[in-house]
Amino acid sequence: MGTRVAAPGLAAFGWDEAHAAAFAPFAAEARTPARVIVGHRDAYVVHGPGGEHRAAVSGRFRFDASVAADFPVVGDWVVVERQADAGEGTIHVVLPRRSAFVRRAPGRGVAEQVVAANVDLALVVTSLNRDLNPRRLERYLAAGRESGAAVALILSKADLCDDLEERRRTVESGAPGVPVVFVSALDGRGMDDVRRMLEPGRTVALIGSSGVGKSTLVNALAGESLLAVREVRLDDGRGRHTTSHRQLVRLPGGALILDTPGMRELGLLTDDGLDEAFADVDELARVCRFSDCTHGSEPGCAVDAAIRAGTLARERLESRRKLERETLRALVAGLGRSGIEPFCRILGDVPGKETRKVLIEALVAVGRGSPELFLPFLVDPRWYLVRNAIYILRRIAGPESEQAAVRCAGHKDPRVRKEVILYFDETGDPAGESVLLGFLGDDVQSLRMAAARNLARRGSKAAAERLLALTAAPGFAGRERLERESVWEALGALVPEQVFPTLKELLLKRRWFGQAQELDDTACACAGLKRIGTPAAIAVLQQAAARKRGEPRELVEKVLRSLARGRDDRAGSESGGEAGRG
Question: How many beta carbons lie within 10 A of that of residue 196, not counting itself?
Fold first, then answer.
């Protein structure tokens, strides 16, 4: 019953067979379809079979709605119950949206805000005065395409612009494939082009910043002053808010046009529209030599080549990167523990260095506000989740992060233990010294070496005692050369005067059991003496270089050259500083 009676009255507002099919389950409940044409904070004006009337959502609807995006917005088709003697109806259901213009709600949160629904064409409006901003247009165009509607660009106030072709080139370079129309409501320029887009029954949304002329455009298309307008500020050319709510206006030609309030900020929630909005960048990226190219300094980068050739603006690439980071942060920040788990799981395997960097930034941003989301992963049986959680937490560096790293120091998987060492190496947390001392006895050589280097940087006296005892142990000489090098290097930093005689003797002794032992002892002594770096240490190295032959000599000479470069660099830095002070 509802469909048969309502369809003729609603056809002019976009009612069709698809909407009728969605409404069919409610037709037997003595309810009718209606379209929301005006939206206020807590009340709506809808157009139903009997014309326009006010409506409000039911108590059950309000209770069941989990987020603000569940509530009706202008353009929605809703199921309404209206008593014969009552002027106001009750909205029970929002029918499925064919398209939705969605942005991140203003502020620091990540909640969705649906601006308009069931839009067929999004006209992104910007003025040709000082408000014209190509980067802002890219954001609006991405959001428009993300909505599911077709997109066109309206450049208003053409009568104020002296160089339309230059502006056209600027805009079209950032909007490939998007129809661009210059209009002036004052002299009528371009208005016929806009009218040709406004087919009967088609819903068109005007989207843009404050003061770009959206309300003026609606009035010009309607042939009367339906909406209030105000002048822009003369001092900066910025617009003033005129429209304070959203409303759907039926034009004389039968099209439906929706004017939206100017937006101070437009935060994207997904990257669905970015591929289309930046199709030119993506087309170049597909022919880069490397599939994970970051479009920086890699050889064979087609994007970088286009920028250098002047066929692609660098600002356009940076705009894409900025919007990608923003949408990924919004996506990750809107998820709970179960939602971020897939991101933590794939962190080490994300293709593309730039994407991986963006994902890490997004997870870190979430962690700073809610570090507790990552803590449950620390007891997960999957080692890679534990490792990646610590990886994120060490970039947050708070009390929860330190406790998490301490708890995971004894994890059975060495890859997790390595991440713990990296955590204390990067953060320098005081609790790390005792944990790192424990790693000196780890059964994995690379972890023992990493712990020794970290403790040397900390200047740990307890580490010096442990390492000296280790060098005196019977089995130390039988350990692999790399590990012994790291121990002597650490001791050279921690107790240089105490180990200098031992290192000198090790380097200058007369007899070895074969050249392999001489090379091993030379490498160990060089590691410690290089770390000490005093004139006395350099003199011992010079003496060894004069005495040794073959590979041992080459190794000593390499260390001497490295120390000489270090002295030259320091001298150059000091002389530069003196010149600056002079």
Answer: 9
Structure tokens at 415: 């890859």
| pLDDT digits 0-9 by tens, 12-64 | 898 999 999 999 988 877 789 999 998 877 789 999 888 888 899 988 888 88
- Average pLDDT of every residue of the chain: 78
- Residue 257 CA to residue 384 CA, distance in Å, equals 52
Strand partners for 53: 46
Extract the runs of DSSP E, i.e. beta strands, from 208-309.
246-250, 256-259
Taking 3-state DSSP, the helix, strand and coil percentages for the chain, each rounded to the nearest 5, stand at 55, 15, 35
Task: Note the pLDDT tens digit of each residue in 81-90.
Answer: 887 666 788 9
The partner residues of 91 in beta bridges, in order of sequence, read 57, 80
Q: Which two tokens stand for residue 307?
A: 């920028």
Residue 235 burial class via C-beta count within 10 angstroms: exposed 0-12, middle 13-18, buried 19 and up: exposed
Residues 6 or more apart in contact with residue 12 via CB below 8 angstroms:
200, 201, 250, 254
Taking alpha carbons only, the member of 66, 153, 154, 67 closest to residue 104 is 67
As a whole number of angstroms, the distance between CA 139 and CA 462 comes to 56
Residue 75: enclosing H or E segment and its boundaries? none
Radius of gyration of the chain (CA): 35
Q: Is 357 exposed, middle or buried (0-12, 13-18, 19+ CB in 10 A)?
A: middle
Distance of CA 133 to the CA centre of its chain: 22
105 residue type, one letter: A
Q: How far apart are CA 201 and CA 412, in angstroms?
A: 66
Helix (H) or strand (E) holding 114: strand 112-117
pTM, entire model: 0.52
- Give pLDDT tens digits for 154-203: 888 888 777 777 777 777 777 777 888 888 878 888 888 888 998 888 89
* Phi, psi angle pair for 246, to nearest 5°: -95, 140
Partners of residue 256 on adjacent β-strands: 203, 250
Between CA 57 and CA 92 the distance in angstroms is: 6
Identify whether the C-beta of residue 354 lies closer than 8 Å to the C-beta of residue 368.
no
pLDDT band (50, 70, 90) for residue 96 = very high
> Which pair of tokens denotes residue 26?
């409610």
Stated as kind and residue range, the H or E segment containing 123 is strand 121-127
Stated as kind and residue range, the H or E segment containing 143 is: helix 134-146
Residue 357 in contact with residue 298, Cβ under 8 Å? no
Angle between helices 550-581 and 515-532 (to 10 degrees): 10
Residues 6+ apart with CB under 8 A from 253: 195, 198, 200
Domains of the chain: 2-96 (2.40.50.140), 102-259 (3.40.50.300), 278-321 (1.10.40.50), 496-582 (no CATH)
DSSP 224: S
Provide the pairing of β-strand 89-94 with 51-57. Answer: parallel
CA-to-CA distance for 245 and 337, rounded, in angstroms?
Answer: 36
